[in-house]
Design a protein that fits this description.
- The structure holds two protein chains of two kinds.
- By secondary structure, chain A is an alpha/beta fold.
- Chain A has one domain (about 10-170): 3-Layer(aba) Sandwich (Rossmann fold).
- Chain A contains eight helices and six strands, in the order αβαβαβααβαβαβα.
- Chain A has a six-stranded parallel sheet, with helices on both faces.
- In chain A, helix 2 (about 35-40) links the parallel strand 1 (about 25-30) and strand 2 (about 50).
- Chain A starts with 9 loop residues before the first helix and ends in a 7-residue tail after the last helix.
- By secondary structure, chain B is an alpha/beta fold.
- Chain B has a single domain (about 5-200), classed as 3-Layer(aba) Sandwich (Rossmann fold).
- Chain B is about 35% helix and about 15% strand.
- In chain B, the strands form three sheets. Chain B has a five-stranded parallel sheet with strand order 3-4-5-9-8, sandwiched between helices. In chain B, strands 1-2 form a two-stranded antiparallel ribbon.
- In chain B, helix 1 packs across helix 2 (about 35-45).
- Chain B starts with a strand and ends in a 6-residue tail after the last helix.
- The chains are: A alpha/beta, B alpha/beta.
Chain lengths: ~180, ~200
């Protein structure tokens, strides 16, 4: 690991922001970068945490949540974005608000060549599917970026993804 | 059970009669029919603001119903996917099993075919047992239905039993006329939310 303080404070900041925004359903396919946030969400009774078998389940589930009057968020790694593509057509056709927090692989210091293709096309794919993207590469800007994306999603009824860069998360290297 | 004494049971049920029977008792239940034939079936039974008619999002029907069931825990939520739809999102049975929502029912309208694309066989025609998968995934109550009598016997599971409930309903491939709901997705969403949430839908 590199480029990362021992205990990042932004997961708690994201959690507080989600709580303040009345987000109730937290769907995820785990990623190391989201592990602290997932634990925080699991620990509160005000949130349902839903572990998925594939990220596209989360797109459908959050559409159902909105139909039922609840707000949700989908946590995933960049590789999961590709799994969601067809269901984005429902999100756009029905104009479902959709908040996604995507931890990036395949960029800053990536050691696994199999991650690079999806990581480097994540933003393009999301934008092609009508999802607004917000990059964040500095730990101190994560919380405000998630908060502003979240306001946009739930107040302006749009789909948005915050792409949390590998520079923030620290790169993984099993070779060391 | 899909087989009795190794013999495949005869499929006789008409999909329109099945869906009409299930929805006849819907009360204040929320209904999510899957794209294609189940949506036409639900529409033939009566277009309804609390039916979220699907024109796409194959594989997503059961998960939309899960999100709805978690948001509306006092309401019965009924997903009506086709077999192709459910097979595409087969992992959602495992996800629903782990969540265990007591108010969620997944009733698959299984004609063992991809109906909109030329009636090609799905895996259920080749012996895949969706009820078995649901049971092994942790659904609390499951049933397979081949006759109207068995459907009547399953109705308490649809509307009363603690869920998650899974019902596999085998229907024939006999042609039925298309009965189409409104197509505009945003409008269907707003109609559903307004009927369910009132003015809060537009806050």
């Amino acid at each position: 690991m590199s480029e990362q303080p021992a205990t990042p404070t932004w997961p708690r900041g994201i959690y507080d922001g989600l709580r303040a925004n009345s987000v109730r359903q937290v769907a995820y396919v785990p990623d190391a970068g989201h592990s602290e946030l997932i634990k925080l969400c699991q620990a509160t009774e005000q949130m349902s945490t839903i572990s998925l078998t594939t990220e596209e389940e989360g797109i459908a589930m959050l559409a159902g949540a909105w139909l039922g009057g609840e707000r949700g968020v989908l946590l995933m790694q960049s590789s999961g974005v590709g799994n969601c593509v067809n269901l984005f057509s429902m999100v756009q056709e029905c104009r479902f608000p959709l908040l996604m927090l995507v931890t990036m692989r395949g960029q800053w210091g990536e050691f696994n060549p199999w991650q690079v293709w999806m990581g480097s096309s994540t933003r393009t794919i999301l934008e092609q599917c009508g999802v607004l993207c917000f990059d964040v590469d500095e730990p101190q800007r994560v919380v405000e970026t998630v908060a502003s994306a979240s306001d946009l999603v739930f107040n302006a009824y749009r789909s948005a993804a915050v792409l949390i860069g590998q520079r923030v998360l620290g790169s993984k290297n099993f070779l060391k | 059970m899909a087989t009795e004494g190794g013999t495949k049971r005869e499929i006789v049920l008409n999909r329109r009669e099945v869906v009409a029977r299930v929805l006849r008792d819907r009360g204040d239940a929320l209904v999510v029919p899957g794209l294609g034939a189940p949506t036409w079936d639900a529409t033939a039974a009566g277009d309804h603001p609390l039916t979220f008619a699907m024109w796409g999002a194959m594989g997503g029907t059961a998960m939309i119903a899960l999100g709805l069931a978690l948001a509306q825990r006092q309401r019965r939520v009924i997903a009506l996917p086709g077999d192709g739809d459910l097979l595409m999102g087969i992992g959602s049975l495992a996800t629903i099993g782990t969540q265990g929502p007591p108010n969620l029912v997944v009733a698959v309208i299984d004609n063992e075919r991809y109906g909109e694309t030329g009636m090609q066989e799905t895996h259920t025609a080749r012996g895949v047992d969706l009820e078995g998968i649901a049971r092994a995934s942790g659904f609390r109550k499951t049933a397979s239905v081949y006759t109207m009598q068995e459907l009547e016997a399953a109705m308490p599971l649809v509307y009363e039993a603690p869920g998650p409930v899974f019902i596999g309903i085998k229907v024939t491939t006999d042609p039925v006329p298309n009965v189409l709901p409104p197509r505009d997705g945003a409008w269907l969403k707003h109609r559903f939310r307004q009927a369910l949430l009132g003015d809060k839908a537009f806050e």
